[in-house]
Design a protein that fits this description.
Keywords: DNA-binding, Transcription, Transcription regulation. By secondary structure, this protein is an alpha/beta fold. The protein is built from eight helices and 14 strands. The strands form four sheets. It has a seven-stranded parallel sheet, with helices on both faces.
């Protein structure tokens, strides 16, 4: 019943169309789906990816945490951990603000309407002033040819700057984002040190990335199989 209500809510706002047995997107391919729509898509995959990402983070680390629905799942799993985190989203900052183990650093910038992702020169200046152990990125789309991309130019610029100020980088890319490209280029596909995805990601492209020296972890898949 909860899923049905969510679908009805999104259909009423023109985000999707109800069809027999489910729903299909009503958004043009080049338009960023609203945060509310993305937050109800591939939820289990995103949670598994987030859990795998949190396992890569050590207590005491300094983290720059991207905006996006998968990054929000990461923030929710940081309860009980001790680290310094700069979130690039007001939604994620709100998730972390009462976490007693988190030293929360807030960047400046302008929140994008609907997304609440922080962009602009103040955000970039905040990032340039610091150095982080890990950047956890959540791109909008991913392909071997187009690399990591985002729908918004300012968002792509912030993501690239986050990469530049971190020693290590982790990209959270659920299977639905593979073989896709959005408007704004962030970086090559082999730029992140680790890509965490789910079993629906194309196996041949995972293998191609491994040949380029990129570590690809499949969340929810038996790593010993």
């Amino acid at each position: 019943m909860t899923v049905r209500r969510d679908l009805d809510y999104l259909a009423a706002r023109g985000v999707l169309k109800r069809v027999h047995g489910g729903a299909v997107s009503a958004m043009p391919a080049g338009v960023e789906p609203p945060f509310a729509a993305r937050s109800t898509a591939a939820v289990e995959a995103k949670r598994a990816i987030a859990a795998a990402a949190v396992e890569q983070l050590r207590d005491g680390d300094s983290i720059v945490l991207d905006s996006g629905t998968t990054a929000l799942e990461v923030a929710r799993l940081l309860r009980g951990r001790t680290m310094t985190v700069m979130p690039l989203s007001l939604q994620i900052a709100q998730e972390l603000v009462d976490n007693p183990g988190i030293r929360l650093l807030l960047p400046g910038g302008e929140p994008r309407k609907g997304e609440q992702a922080l962009v602009g020169p103040l955000t970039l200046a905040s990032l340039r002033a610091l150095r982080f152990d890990v950047a956890v990125l959540s791109p909008c789309a991913f392909s071997l040819e187009s690399g990591l991309t985002a729908f918004d130019l300012g968002d792509a610029e912030v993501k690239l700057q986050a990469l530049a100020v971190a020693t290590r980088s982790i990209a959270l890319v659920d299977g639905a984002k593979w073989d896709r490209a959005a408007l704004a280029y962030i970086c090559p596909a082999d730029r992140p040190d680790l890509i965490i995805t789910d079993p629906s990601a194309p196996m041949d492209e995972r293998a191609a990335l491994a040949e380029r020296g990129v570590l690809v972890q499949v969340a929810g898949e038996d790593q010993n199989s």
